[in-house]
Amino acid sequence: MLFPPSSAQRVIPMILWPISIMMVLHKSVILGVDGARTNDFRPVYLAAWRFLNDFPVYAENYNTVDPHYLYPPSGTLVMAPLAKLDYEDARWLFIALSTISLVACAYLLVRLFGYGIGGWQMPAVLFAFFSTETVANTLIFTNFNGFVLLGMLGFLLALRNRHDWWAGVFIGLTIAVKPVLAPLLLLALLNRQWKAIIPAVLVPLALLVVAWPLGVDSADFVHRTVPYLGEVRDYYNSSIAGNGAYFGVADWLVLLLRAAFVLMAVFCLWFLYRYYRKTDELLWLTVSAGVLLTTEFLVGSLGQGYYSMLLFPLLASVFLPGSPMRNWPAWLGVYGAFTFDSLYSDRWEAFGRILEYNKVTMGWSLIMIAVFCSLLFRYLDLRRAGAAGPLLEEWPRRENEATGTGGEGAPAVATVNR
């Protein structure tokens, strides 16, 4: 054997730790501090300053393509302490906190799958995180997404460990600022963990009640910002509707595609709930969360590339037997959604621009299609077998055999794990 397990356990961390640490420092200290033309932090800082100094917060001109401040008053209250510092100091502090948050996310993801910091998994996850566009641009553009991922992983880990109140607090804090994780409350409802819903609703509501009278134009968030959030913009938008608006796709085709992905998501969620919630809760949680969020990104009015960060638990599910991520089309989609590569071309300018502007949309779409087809084929195999229980119990064993030397179980794997 070329790499005995004992050697691999020692050699892989030795290789990955220094590389991963340098990648963390490069993305945060060099690229993050340098920043880019797109600056998501400036409107947040200005809104916090206006909030503290009794100026209107929601009086922006939404006709420009500059980053806009879109957080609710509860999010403004959470961000307000940043305005106590000078702009540059506040930005550097935010980058530092985001970096710490992302490292904590890597640890929580490893813990979610039952591993500790001492194995190869932690440096491997850090390496994977900081290789992606989503993490790099979260630090370069200096936005809140790292904290959203932290709240998501805290929510999933707390649900898994039956700490329902804490699960609700984690997701409630993110909803108070950026309600992108709200669809995940469906998981708590489906798993009968009702207590998680209470703090998930009360935490953002309490922050909103406190913040509302402190802002001079809180009502404008409802009258001006909420309608804007419902509009489909044709720039920096990788949702189906945003992509369609940019390329001039017919409205009926955009509607058809959105409906198709909703139907795929409904089937995936039903199948996962029926066959995996009780037999493999971790697989059910991670894949269902990924399906919910990918559908939200594709079907909603706004889907930005760095939202892909929230799909890390779905990607990690590939290490679980029975994961619908165990196929190459899914990982071709992962490349599109996560790559930091630029696909612009000087020689094939028009073609390169199409690839670049479509890579995230196509990546999310391919991930969803691959997950859907994997589960659909599995469902059809179950119907043909006529006995769901025994076949489901055999899947982990068959997949493990398929990764080894083959044998009697190998042909059956090709049927159920397409």
Order of helices and strands: HHHHHHHHHHHHHHHHHHH
Mean pLDDT: 90
* Overall shape: globular
| Uncertain ranges | 401-418
Number of helices: 19
Structural class: mainly alpha
In which range does the helix fraction lie? 55-70%
* Assembly context of the chains: single chain
Strand percent estimate: under 5%
- C-alpha termini separation: 29 Å
Total count of strands: 0
Subcellular location: Cell membrane
Membrane topology: Multi-pass membrane protein
Keywords: Cell membrane, Membrane, Transferase, Transmembrane, Transmembrane helix
Main location: membrane
How is this fold's topology laid out?
Blueprint: H1 5-34, H2 41-52, H3 73-79, H4 87-112, H5 121-129, H6 133-140, H7 145-160, H8 164-177, H9 185-190, H10 197-211, H11 218-230, H12 240-247, H13 251-276, H14 281-299, H15 312-316, H16 328-338, H17 349-385, H18 388-402, H19 410-416
Describe the structure.
This is Arabinosyltransferase AftC. GO terms for molecular function: hexosyltransferase activity. It comes from Gordonia amarae NBRC 15530. InterPro entries: GT87. This protein has helices at 5-34, 41-52, 73-79, 87-112, 121-129, 133-140, 145-160, 164-177, 185-190, 197-211, 218-230, 240-247, 251-276, 281-299, 312-316, 328-338, 349-385, 388-402, 410-416. It has 418 residues and is an all-alpha fold. The chain has a domain at 234-418. Helix 13 (251-276) runs antiparallel to helix 14 (281-299) and helix 16 (328-338) runs antiparallel to helix 17 (349-385).
